[in-house]
Structure formats: C-alpha cells, structure tokens
Specification:
This protein is α+β, with helices and mostly antiparallel strands and 147 residues long. The protein contains 4 helices and 5 strands.
DNA sequence: GCCAACGTTGGC
DNA sequence: GCCAACGTTGGC
C-alpha cells in the first residue's frame, strides 16, 4: 500500500497504531479494498516519492474490513466526491494497523534488481495503482529482506 | 521540474 | 461508444 511519507509515513502509523486508509479514488483499488481485503491480511507499507528512500518501509495488517470512506462526503476533505450517494456510496476504505517498521527501507532500486521480484507487479512499468497485489512468495521475500 | 503512463471527462 | 483533451501519478 503506497503512501507519501511526508503525508503519512510508517512512523505516523506506528504512532497512531491504526489508521483509516481513506482518499482512494480509483475503482480498481477500491475493488481490492472492498472485495478482497479481509481482517488479518498483511500489507506492506510503501513510501513513494521519497527520493533515495523510496521503497517498502514496514508491515501492517488489515484491522477493519471495508466501509464507506467518509471523506467522500466531506467537501472540506482532500478528495470530496459530491456525486457519491450516501445511500449507495461510491468509495470504500479499510483500516490498517501497524505491525512493524523494517530495519531498513527496501528500496525500489533493490527490488528492481532482485531476480525474485522480476515478475512482480510492483516493478512492472506503468503501474500507478496505490495498492498492488503481491504473491505469497514475493511478500515473504520482502519481509525477510526488511528484517 | 520533466515526462511517460496512465485514468477521467465530455463533446459529438 | 469513440476519442481528444486534460489531469494525475510517481519515478527519475
């Protein structure tokens, strides 16, 4: 799950323990959160736009399954969607809970040069989704690198 | 700051 | 439904 660390980082998640993953306004990503994520699923936290520290920063888990993203109805939020009907909401989010911060960031450069990651959606060009699915093996490999 | 690679919008 | 124009993302 991508986040810009100057907006919300793994350190912020560690401090607040749990956070609503709101603001997603992409249908594919919404569908992943709404239809596939379940309580207890693991999620790697990825720092984007972080210069040399762009990469995977830590581990979290899903602590609450999808619910309507309240920020879509808030005209003062960063991503209001006034066309979304409160009785039939368009956007959903999940809640994420901190598990651990990795000792070092596994940089995108590391991952791109890693043969075990060569088939991963994470290193494929053109991916702009803020949530990217990994295989079990890819996930376990990154966790091992992080620890 | 640049720009490729998207996704969305809206006229037709 | 098509597609040009536009806006956004995110690595570099």
């Amino acid at each position: 799950m991508k986040t810009e660390p100057n907006e919300f980082s793994i350190d912020d998640l560690k401090r607040v323990k749990k956070e609503m993953w709101d603001g997603v306004r992409n249908y594919q990503v919404r569908n992943m959160m709404r239809d596939e994520m379940r309580v207890g699923d693991f999620a790697l936290i990825y720092h984007s736009n972080a210069g040399a520290k762009t990469g995977v920063a830590g581990l979290a888990k899903i602590s609450k399954e999808s619910f309507p993203d309240p920020t879509q109805f808030d005209s003062l939020s960063a991503h209001p969607d006034l066309k979304s009907d409160p009785l039939n909401p368009r956007w959903f989010c999940v809640q994420v809970e901190f598990l651990e911060k990795f000792d070092k960031v596994i940089t995108l450069i590391d991952l791109k040069s890693d043969p075990k990651m060569k088939d991963s959606k994470l290193v494929k060009k053109g991916n702009r989704l803020s949530i990217i699915q990994l295989s079990q093996k890819e996930f376990e490999h990154i966790v091992k690198l992080g620890r």
